[in-house]
Amino acid sequence: MITARAAASFEPVGRSVASARSFVRDTLQGWGFADIVDDAVVLTSELVTNAVVHAGTSADVLCLRSDEGVRIEVADRYPEREIPLQATAVNMGSPDREGGRGLQLCAALAGRWGVEYIPTHKTVWFQLDLPARAVGTRAAGPALPADLLPLADSRVRVAVVQVDRTGHISAWNEDAEELFGYPAEQVTGKPLTDLAAWPHTPGTSTGIAEALRLSRWEGSYGIRAATGRVTPVYASHLRVRDTGGEPSTVCLLVRDHERAVLQTPLRGPASDSSSGSEGQNTDPFEVFIGSPAPDDLDGLLQRTVERARDMLDGDSAFLLLATDDETELEVRASTGLPSARQRFARVPVEAGPGRYGSARMPAVHDDLTAVPGAVPLLNGTGMRSVVTVPLKVEGRLTGSLGVAAEAPARYSNEEALRLQFAADRIALAVESARLGELERLRRGSLSFLVEASDLLAGTLDRDQTLALMAQMTVPTLATWCAVYTIADQASEPYLSYVLHEDEELIDGIKYLLSKVPAPDPVPTPGARVWTAPAEVAHQAALRSSMRSLGLSGSPTRQVTPGIGPTLATASAVGGETVVLPLVARNRVIGMLTLGKPTDEHFRQEILELAEDLSRRAALALDNARLYSERTAISQSLQRSLLPPELPEIEGVEVEVIYRAAGEGNEVGGDFYDVFPIRDGAYGFAIGDVCGTGPNAAAVTGLARHALRLLAREGLTGPTVLERLNSAILDEGARSRFLTLLYGEMRPQEDGSAELKVVCAGHPLPLRLRQDGTVEPAAEPQPLLGVIEDLELYEQTVTLDPGDVLLCVTDGVTERREGARMLGDDGLADVLTTCTGLTAGAVAARIMRAVERFASDAPSDDMAILAMRVPGLHKD
């Protein structure tokens, strides 16, 4: 039964793919289906891309909610169908191809999928089933001995926090004050996001804003207490509404180690009482872990170490998971140790020679002081005795479980056997949960990379690309990020961008990194550890502490003012720092540096995701560099084709306005020039080369410079243009048609100006008289660059005092708004209103009229040359 539906249509443009992803994500999160959002977004992205990019049609997306799950349909208007023969296997393409993976992903991720055809549409649909989950059920666990019950403080405090529809705290009870140290009046009205330390690993959690909008949510996060420390909590959220219909979220929070108080038990399968017996043995896994077992990996691991510590009456316990190649172990859970600062740290499987140096075998150490380094995780913790056992699945090492005590000789082989028995009971469950987490992370990573590629492809601005790189990594992948760029192979790396999740620390990190030599630009792929920032941070913190205690060795020395590496800055960069090369087109163009705060480490999956992101970011950054270089070259070439300045002509006002079309990435074909020929005579020209780009630029440069050279040889206007025509034809394949208005102007003693004009295929110049009449000032003649033997002639025009000669390119006269065009008549009408204006005012009025004629940006270059002979008296 369909319980809800949502539909949207998307135009056949590239940005529609991102819009479709946002539509599906918002719809499913609004329905409370965060578990399947990543799969749905990836599949929708592929199918909509096929429709709007490859098929070139609009796409209709329909989301249907039912009791079983969610069905999503993507329809396009390209009803191509192929009915395979019964004996022929359907080939869905190679997974290595750039496109055509939509059906392969459907087959891999969806529970059901299919393709439906009608004469006008093709629809690809897929259904994602909801994971089995018990919501709102009542359950009871088995009776357990007292020593197996969950541990809690002497008094369990349950913080009750109510959050309104905007995410602001509206209620805060006494237990919340006791747990986190804030009085109610201090936090009421503040956003919960100011206090919540939410996990940001992609694919493993829902964001806090989404969680507060769900009808019910349960899980772990942290609350920043008044002391500044983060208190891990386990929370149960319930969305309610008051009698007025106003929604809010009630949050119940306990300390994370007391999660059993709030954790909802999983609904087990209905049992048949007839099949049971009083003598049935209890499941050893349930006896050790307790009921209900946590349904998430972190909860299972934390419960495991707590049970192991209690079982052997130890002071601490830890659990490590093996990497895929079984060469290293990764710290994933601990109790009684400063493990929060060492989460995801790695230690080798083979720590030393002999069986006691390998995590593959059980080991008992009576006194670690006698064998320092035998268990690297316990170095400096004060633990003396330890027992460790391997976690194995089908003979393969999957992890290691250990219990330690501060007293020596606490454990024997008997305790090792008991711990090994427990490890064997949980190994399969841990491995299954780990694989599930890894799969969710990979699916989340795929969705993350799709979004990142879309954002990076949407800009060609270098600074914006750098900002996007940093914003995509912080805080999703790292706590802070720095991007170094390399201009060329002879240049040193330059610190271009720094970002930290706390903006107040950015300046301090910049200062600290400026004191550290940049990492070497090594092209080797993958992340490598960079210890220099942590070392400098440690030294800075030590110096700062010594100064605060007056132990700097120079009591009278004053600390210099400035940003400086404060203790907060040193702590922010004091953890693990890794460097990933930015390689594009076989050249290292920079480095992406990711860092964690003090004693924190990166997990391998995050580093692999960062490596994928760095490859995409490097290409985007290099594309932005190439675009910037091309734009700079184009603009420089465009400037070289125009005269640097106009000469001062006594008795004649001259004004030019030039507007290049587009964003400056193409060299225009329009040009103008005004230059002295000889004493008292000046040449002027305005022309338009057919086309744009390098070939048009070559003809533009040839025309402008040839006019100056030929005119100064004393040749007449027709002769100048005929020789220029021959030079253009000599360009061969690079030659272009050229319309050109060329003239020679000589001011007269009576205040007038004599002009000799040749108009070779160009829009005719217009003459504005003082009485407001407008008339063409020349006759049309053949354009240049078409035929070899041109016979041109010049016409003499006299500008009386107050007259204006207006010359324009066809970008002015061919300005369009739909089917309307300004044209020669429209230009003449505007010019009739310019009587009595200066040359500058005339050019400005013409340009305003052209811009107002149409709302769209100009599609062609425009040049306006206005020359006016002032009256005998001052205007």
Automatic annotation (TrEMBL):
The PAS domain covers 160-190
Positions of the UniProt region annotated as Disordered:
264-285
UniProt name for this protein: PAS domain S-box-containing protein
Q: Which Pfam families match?
A: GAF, GAF_3, HATPase_c_2, PAS, SpoIIE
Q: Which organism is it from?
A: Streptomyces paradoxus
Q: NCBIfam families, from UniProt?
A: sensory_box
The Swiss-Prot or TrEMBL record annotates one GO molecular function as: phosphatase activity
Q: Which UniProt keywords apply?
A: Hydrolase
Highest rank taxon of the organism = Bacteria
One GO BP annotation of this record: regulation of DNA-templated transcription
> Which PANTHER family is this protein grouped with?
STAGE II SPORULATION PROTEIN E, STAGE II SPORULATION PROTEIN E-RELATED
InterPro entries attached here?
Bact_Sigma-Reg (IPR052016), GAF (IPR003018), GAF-like_dom_sf (IPR029016), HATPase_C_sf (IPR036890), HATPase_dom (IPR003594), PAS (IPR000014), PAS-like_dom_sf (IPR035965), PAS_fold (IPR013767)
Q: Which residues, if any, are the signal sequence?
A: none
